[in-house]
Amino acid sequence: MRIFVTAALLATFALGQTKVASVEGITEYKLDNGLNVLLFPDNSKPTVTVNITYMVGSRHEGYGESGMAHLLEHMLFKGTEKRKEIIPELRAHGGQFNGSTWYDRTNYFETMPATEENLRYGLELEADRMLHSRVSREDLDSEMTVVRNEFEIGENNPASVLQERVMSTAYLWHGYGRSTIGARSDIEHVPIPRLQAFYHMYYQPDNATLVVAGKFDDAKTLAWIKEIFGAIPKPTRQIIPTYTEEPTQDGEREVILRRTGDIQAVDMVYHTPAGSHPDAAPLEVLAAILGETPSGRLYKALVETKKAVATAGDSFDMHDPGLIEFSARLRKEGSLEDVEKTMLGVIDGVVKEPPSKDEVERAKARLLKDIDLAFNNSERIAINLSEWQSMGDWRLQFLFRDGIKKVTPEDVARVAKLYLKPSNRTTGRFIPTAAPDRSEIPATPNVAAEVKDYKGNAAVEAGEAFDPSPANIDARTIRVSLPNGMKLALLPKKTRGGTVSATLVLHFGDVNSVTGKTIAAQSAGTLLMRGTAKHTRQQIQDELDKLKAQMTAAGGPTRANVSINTIRASFPDTLRLAAEVLREPVFPETEFEQARQSSIANIESSRTEPQPRAINAMSRHISPYPKGDPRSVATFDEDIENYKKLTLADVKKFYADFYGASNAELAIVGDFDATEAQKIAAELFGSWKSPAPFTRVTRDWTKLEAVNRSIETPDKANAIFLGIATLPVSDDDPDYPAILTANTMIGSGPESRLFQRIRGKDGLSYGVGSQFSAGVAEKFAQILTYAFCNPQNILKVEAAFKDEMAKALASGFTADELAAAKKTYFQDQQVARSQDRVLAGALASNAQYGRTMAREATIDAKIAALTPADVSAALKKRLDPSAISIFKAGDLKKAGITQ
Fold first, then answer.
1. Can you name the CATH fold of 470-685?
2. Cα–chain-centroid distance for residue 135?
3. Is the pLDDT of residue 428 over 50?
4. Helix (H, G, I), strand (E, B) or coil at 344
5. Domain residue ranges of the chain, discontinuous segments joined by +
């Protein structure tokens, strides 16, 4: 219930806090102890997000402290003086939560169902761990190995390591030259007193910004914040601001990385001003003009000419002067020298040949579309505010948006000429220069002066308070069948910003007709948005930008799908564009070859990586179908050979033979006119018939011989463990709810047994868990367990996995475990059903199988009624521990593992 705000109550609120500013629905307050508070009410979703940001990141770390801010991010999930374990508490409140560390800040957030209990819990939790986190030696001993494993995962990616090396070379003195993950030696040897001192220095109210966004009562929430956080004393210590300024770069710099891998990469960076500087907006546009796909100049010069398989451009907006980065990836047999020469020619060429008005307007449209769509999601805004606040003030995001709108071709040409100089570049080469031409980077602006009195635009329109229960979803959903058999599921409702989400799925073929055509089918799906009879690939992207729409399309041997996210006014035209993509693709020769080469390169890069190697071996084991069968899994070499043999004629023939809408579903959720949508859908798809019959391809369960395989991937710091069991169970099976719940307790979430054992207690893995999935109307299900770890620890992970599975099967689960799992399940379902994209997918699936949300309500009721004995009996009945196959991949020989 919304409390009535009287004049007396407002006067009470004013004591101990000051209202600072209000812009576009976001209001800032400041408590007497220095805490910044941002309130962003949005009643259109039944969730509330609590996000707290501390102005501390790797920039603030001193000698021997690298990675300390990130390590503390992990430590704050271990517990406080009064909270033994935080993660199970968060899950009990239905929280989707995480933390993140960057160069300028660390943040923690939780998005929960919007109840007063959950909101107050989130506020009390963040106030508690602001001052009272344990940061103990015992916790550090277990979490250090987890963080080190995260470091090792990054070390497996040569492109990621290359970027880290380039950054450290571009910065000689400033903290931005240090990766947030830190040095391995610092992670392993950090003294606990030094980590505790770092925590007590920076985790204080005067160094933090609290954001509350979503469905909540403004006045009551503000009163709680004052009560909970206002009681924390203002610190007496002083934080000394960082004062290192990176000197002007005085010549090209070089870095070379030599590691195992099948893909080559080139990175080039140039120093640029801080994110608060007016030049940040034209630099963002410059990065898009050079680095976007497929409009970017680098893409056209490198990918379209087949010299590279991918290009990118990005601008690093940070508190202090940052970087603009350009990169390219190419196959192993490609010429790195030629790619680097071409990149330099394109980058230098933007100074000689300034961007056209069309290039600038296209980049601006894309950037502004993404900004506008982000503002329609209060959860994203709540978390995005962390970045802008860490640059100096949260209102910078509005100034940046306004700056993008004002960017002209002359602005882009000016910043290109000012910063894209050879002497300001780090690429890997030194050339003596008699008269250096240097870039003097402007000082960080006075942010307070820039944002003072800024008002911004009108706040985004609010949506309705939607009840995501299965009964209400069914009551609100309109179901229609078109003349050709296509099924529509329409759920109109008011949304924040008038957003609309849609999912369109085509089904085609049967097991015999699509055999041997997997690669052609996948390529047809890849090329759907690469050009139609009316629009080129670039024109499709331009249209989407004008419509403020996001669209993806994909396809495989038996289905193709399009996903749409846009706004009310643009939805009809966006749906027409989706129909054009599906019905009128022209499969350009140039796009076909680019996509083919990119697919080959991606497969080649997987041949030396532990995760794809293990997943491929596992998938082949549990899918013992003949080669070419759509359910079979090819080896990497077979896929590469098939792509090399593939012709454009194969792709066109597959499309002509199978694509049609006789067996299709279109689900739409959001702010749209249902009558108009039905009329347009009938016009676009109602007469489009499938050229061939459709019979769903199902999987047959057969008992497989269990295997335990080790896969060698040399020179990889991280390894992966997989455990898989298949079961003769469908999602209609009486045991399905019990096995789903058992999986939650075994490995689905931070409070699960595998997570608590392998990560929490043993500290062996950064990421560990399990997944359960079951087919629709087919008795085939699987329980998959995974863990990432150091190769030396993989046998310990395997032993812990077997031990926990044996305990679960032998002793079952406690009543408390089951109660917690049920609570987590129901709150997760509520949050998932409130996400329009997820809901559209569920409605499309229901339409395909003739179901309604009543089935989900039935599953909910069965789970609610489960007892520990029910769950234990179902698991023992269905899961044979001797039938679990294990796959391990990594540099096992180096770790001394010979099996």
1. Cytochrome Bc1 Complex; Chain A, domain 1 (3.30.830)
2. 29
3. no
4. helix
5. 7-228, 263-440, 470-685, 708-890
